[in-house]
Each structure stands twice: as structure tokens, then as C-alpha cells.
Design a protein that fits this description.
By secondary structure, the chain is mainly beta. About 10% of the residues lie in helices and about 35% in strands. The chain starts with 14 loop residues before the first strand and ends in a 17-residue tail after the last helix. The relative contact order is 0.20.
Length: about 120
């Protein structure tokens, strides 16, 4: 008989979504990514940079919410990462954001663009 490896279960089921988001580490630049699944406790992001590591703290912004503090739980280099929100979303906020994403009624995310320097 072979032993089965058990992965710790999530307390909440993931919901597949497709929405733009952005993330930043500290006061750094906001990088665009895609939110691909969501729970009130965390999310999976696609299109992340290679510079993220398990344990890094960052802020994530999506669905018209203020930035949410999160911690990286796992990362697949340069592809995707799982984050856990330091404070889970309130159920009513989670349901509102989820409905907005599923109905395609999301506010536009503003990402600061670099301003080219002029030669002196």
C-alpha cells in the first residue's frame, strides 16, 4: 500500500475569477497581474514577476478595494503566486467584489507609469 501525501485543506473553497489586479512590495511600483481565483482569505495571482518569494509581504489591489495586505504562501517563479490576506475580507465585501468581478463591473485600476526623463 502506498502512503498518500495530504495537503492541508483550505477553510474556504476557491472561486475561479478573471480580473485585473496590481501588487506592490512596500512603497515600490505597482505591478499589474491577474486575479484568477479568490476566497475571503486569499487569492491566486498570475503574471507576477520573478522577484517574489514565499514569505514576502505585499499589498494587492482589485475590485475597487483599498490595498489589501497579504503574504505570499507559494510561488511558481515568473508565473503565479498564492497569497493569504493578513485580514480576511468581510463576508459582505467578499460577496460584493465577487459579484462585481463576475458581472464585469470593475472600476479601472490606476497604475502609475514611469515618466521619461528629459535630457538636460
Amino acid at each position: 500500500m502506498s502512503e498518500s501525501h495530504q495537503v492541508p485543506s483550505r477553510q474556504l473553497d476557491r472561486v475561479a475569477v478573471k480580473a485585473p489586479c496590481n501588487y506592490r512590495i512596500g512603497a515600490g511600483i505597482a505591478y499589474p497581474a491577474h486575479l484568477v481565483d479568490l476566497t475571503a482569505e486569499g487569492a491566486r495571482l498570475e503574471g507576477i514577476s520573478r522577484g517574489l518569494n514565499v514569505g514576502d509581504r505585499l499589498t494587492v489591489r482589485f475590485g475597487g478595494l483599498a490595498p489589501i495586505d497579504a503574504k505570499i504562501q507559494w510561488v511558481e517563479r515568473g508565473r503565479e503566486a498564492g497569497v493569504r490576506f493578513l485580514q480576511p475580507l468581510y463576508p459582505s465585501v467578499y460577496l460584493h467584489v465577487l459579484a462585481s468581478i463576475q458581472n464585469g463591473k470593475l472600476p479601472q485600476l490606476e497604475v502609475a507609469k514611469a515618466i521619461p526623463l528629459r535630457a538636460c
